[in-house]
Amino acid sequence: MVGRKKKVAVAMSGGVDSSVTAEILKREGFDITGVTMSFSLLDAKTIENARRVCNFLGIKHRVLDLTNILEEKVIENFCQEYLFGRTPNPCLLCNQYIKFGALLKQVLAWGYEFLATGHYVRKLKYKAGFLLKKGKDKDKDQSYFLYRLSQKQLKNILFPLGELTKQEVIRIARRLDLPAARSKESQEICFLSGGDYRGFLKKRITYEIKPGLVVDKAGNILGQHQGVPFYTLGQREGLNIALGQRAYVIRINVAKNQVVLGRLRDAYGREFKVIQSNFILKPLQKRVVYKVKIRYNHPEAEAEIWPQGGNFKVRFRHPQFAITPGQSAVFYDRDIVIGGGLIR
Active site residue: 54, 79, 91, 190, which one? Predict the structure, then answer.
């Protein structure tokens, strides 16, 4: 590069994805600093791993304490959503309010021009603004988690891994003998120890969790549940109800403190409402047909989408399993993220 190097902060966890992200940008001639988000609930080992990678790459390292915003924007919402009988996705809120909210705001205030992350997703400059596209690696694509990004945020974000597959990233890490090259990839929510959300809720909101009745569609009593926050639509395991056939959670009635069970076919649905929507370029103005994904690991399916009273309605062409309030529905035009919102 000619002239002054552009300054880039890399969200650095010490894992293979953020490590290779930093290496790629350093190789391209950027002035790189690794920035690790610190939370009081985060193992100090993560910070040390990130620092070790930065030392290995010969780049600066900073730590930013974001404990308060994690508590305020993510954990409180996590607990409240379960109390309301919904199933939240805290990673979406973390991206919205922490990574691309507080962290991005801070690194720009420090004088960096971009924040780079190890997400497997692509950003493309378009005449009307920036497009958000699926990552090249369809098995690792993380665009579902980023549908709430704005044009203002996209302007200052880099996704260096978007054109790579996970295996290519691992090969780069091993060829360079990066400290993270052979580390195991964490799939856990950062504030849940061992991924046990029920245990976490018991500690946080014990006084608000009350046992109640498990019933069938007709209202017949089948047994007792331990609290609606411990159940989610489509759940089959851990019901402790003997019906002689497979049963699924098909509805959670918070007003009556009931969990409703049914058969597999009862857990399928076609139509739902989307609230708190966000669109990457511009809101939908008319009825359209796009592919819709209702969970990260759920295959997208064709659906009609139309505006309705400030929100949006979605109707799948074919019934889908466990359309779950609290999760996000994300709209795609082939590999382009159009937008999405929360399922209600």
Answer: 190
DSSP 301-323: EEEEEEEETTEEEEEEEEEEE--
Give me 24's structure tokens.
């790629």
Determine the Cα–Cα distance for residues 41 and 271; give it in Å rounded to an integer: 39
Bridge partners of 312, per DSSP, are 274, 307
Most confident of 123-127, 211-215, 235-239: 211-215
Class of CATH domain 267-343: mainly beta
Active site residue 79: no
38 by Cβ neighbours in 10 Å (0-12 / 13-18 / 19+) ranks as: middle
Residue tagged active-site, from 54, 79, 91, 94: 94
For residue 299, what are its two tokens? Answer: 């295959």
How much of the chain is in helix, strand and coil states, percent to nearest 5?
30, 30, 40
Give the other-Cβ count within 10 Å of 135's Cβ. 22
Question: How much is the mean pLDDT over the chain?
Answer: 93
Domain 210-262 matching CATH 3.40.50.970: the answer reads no
Q: Find the helix or strand (DSSP H, E) in which 90 lies.
A: helix 90-93
Tens-place pLDDT, residues 295-323: 999 999 999 999 999 999 999 999 999 99
Tell me which H or E stretch contains 114. Answer: strand 114-116
Q: 53 and 11 in contact (C-beta within 8 Å)?
A: no
Amino acid identity of residue 244, one-letter, is G
Let me know if 91 is a catalytic residue.
no
3-state secondary structure of 72: helix
- The model's pLDDT over 222-247, given as tens digits with 9 standing for 90+, comes to 999 999 999 999 999 989 887 788 99
> How large is the angle between the packed helices 16-27 and 166-175, nearest 10 degrees?
70
1 versus 266: the higher-pLDDT residue is 266
Look up the CATH architecture of domain 7-190. Answer: 3-Layer(aba) Sandwich (3.40)
Residue 155 and residue 211: Cα distance in Å, rounded?
48
